[in-house]
Task: inverse folding
């Protein structure tokens, strides 16, 4: 009897954990804008409409940033007392979420929204636990295209079960939605979330600092390089339709232009989702040019779908490689340190071999060396590379067949 009960329990459990996510929604890493980094919960109709307008007028939409995601703070403090539905905050969004979604869609963009796997969101608003199927139907009625699902107030809840339940609820609701699993890597989602969602957070929240941490007292937000250290070890789990998510971009939020460029370069090398987190109303020309650099975006969005890898790390100088379609490669030379560094790389003698994805840099071929920041061709790999990197600077190249 005990063996029979155990077998039945295992069968039921396996059915519960059999997710049916929508396929084909993220063949390359998703790109868009999220409200949290710059606004927190201080969002409203005017700001969101303005961001939708600016995604178009600044060229962001044309560059590929198509998802506009409302993070925590869009809903009222209680569910509707009669229907149990989530309700938009009537002061912030007097016309409701359907109207916001319609406005976003009218701009040729896609509509994203936020909730949490727990009983309440991270800001204490109504969570989804126990309402998964009801909330999924509501999001479908709103016209939602992207759900970011957080992990606060989840005591006693099992992560794989909670996210699988929500994934199945979205599927049942019938509207294809990209599912963003945001449990900060606590429960190693890369090991179980491939059939559950299209992307999963691998780290704590990001902060606009190049290296180290930002200390909140009870927890620490991570820097660009701290996140790269963690996310860079997980490349075998990423690929078309299932991406490691090292959190949103902090480009334009207070780091130097050199650090912003390195941040953007690393996210592209890691095939990361590119979710803007800056205030588009205050974006300067340098930030706009960086974020719309098509050659960097092409590295991130490469259809081969391989996350790059750190090839070497010597005296604070890192070298990253990323195989690309049609036999091309991307290479990033990065000075993580606080002093200028000389960089030398001997293409013909270095054994660049991505054994995980069976890609090898062809040392018999002379690749053209395209500087991705300037777009210019700077010779080829018949000669060794040499350059000087300032502190925190990244040189980014495409090796072109």
Result:
């Amino acid at each position: 009897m005990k063996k029979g009960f155990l077998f039945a329990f295992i069968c039921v459990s396996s059915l519960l954990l059999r997710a049916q996510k929508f396929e084909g929604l993220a063949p390359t890493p998703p790109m868009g804008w999220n409200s949290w980094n710059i606004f927190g919960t201080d969002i409203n109709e005017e700001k969101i409409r303005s961001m939708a307008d600016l995604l178009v007028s600044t060229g962001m939409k044309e560059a590929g940033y198509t998802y506009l995601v409302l993070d925590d703070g869009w809903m009222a403090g209680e569910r509707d007392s009669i229907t149990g539905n989530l309700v938009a905050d009537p002061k912030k969004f007097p016309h409701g979420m359907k109207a916001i979604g319609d406005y976003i869609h009218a701009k040729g963009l896609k509509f994203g929204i936020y909730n949490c796997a727990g009983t309440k969101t991270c800001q204490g608003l109504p969570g989804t636990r126990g309402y998964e199927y009801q909330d999924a139907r509501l999001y479908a009625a709103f016209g939602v295209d992207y759900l970011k699902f957080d992990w606060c107030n989840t005591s006693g809840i099992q992560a794989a079960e909670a996210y699988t339940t929500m994934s199945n609820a979205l599927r049942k609701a019938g509207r294809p939605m990209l599912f963003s699993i945001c449990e900060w890597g606590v429960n190693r989602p890369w090991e179980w979330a491939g059939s559950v969602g299209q992307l999963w957070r691998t780290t704590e929240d990001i902060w606009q600092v190049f290296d180290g941490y930002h200390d909140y007292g009870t927890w620490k937000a991570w820097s660009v390089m701290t996140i790269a250290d963690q996310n860079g070890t997980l490349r075998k789990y990423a690929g078309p339709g299932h991406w490691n998510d090292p959190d949103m971009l902090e480009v334009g939020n207070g780091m130097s232009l050199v650090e912003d460029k390195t941040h953007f370069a690393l996210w592209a090398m890691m095939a990361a989702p590119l979710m803007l987190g800056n205030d588009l109303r205050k974006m300067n020309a340098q930030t706009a040019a960086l974020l719309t650099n098509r050659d960097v975006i092409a590295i991130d969005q490469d259809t081969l779908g391989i996350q790059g890898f750190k090839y070497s790390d010597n005296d604070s100088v890192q070298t990253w490689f990323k195989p690309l379609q049609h036999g091309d490669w991307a290479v990033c030379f990065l000075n993580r340190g606080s002093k200028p560094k000389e960089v030398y790389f001997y293409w013909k003698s270095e054994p660049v071999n991505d054994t995980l994805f069976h890609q090898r840099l062809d040392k018999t071929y002379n690749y053209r060396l395209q500087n991705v920041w300037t777009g210019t061709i700077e010779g080829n790999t018949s000669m060794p590379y040499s350059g000087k990197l300032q502190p925190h600077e990244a040189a980014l190249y495409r090796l072109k067949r």
